[in-house]
Amino acid sequence: SQQGEEDPQALSIQEGENATMNCSYKTSINNLQWYRQNSGRGLVHLILIRSNEREKHSGRLRVTLDTSKKSSSLLITASRAADTASYFCATDASNYGQNFVFGPGTRLSVLP
Amino acid sequence: DVKVTQSSRYLVKRTGEKVFLECVQDMDHENMFWYRQDPGLGLRLIYFSYDVKMKEKGDIPEGYSVSREKKERFSLILESASTNQTSMYLCASSFWADTDTQYFGPGTRLTVL
Question: What confidence category does residue A100 fall into, taking pLDDT thresholds of 50, 70 and 90?
Answer without folding.
Answer: confident
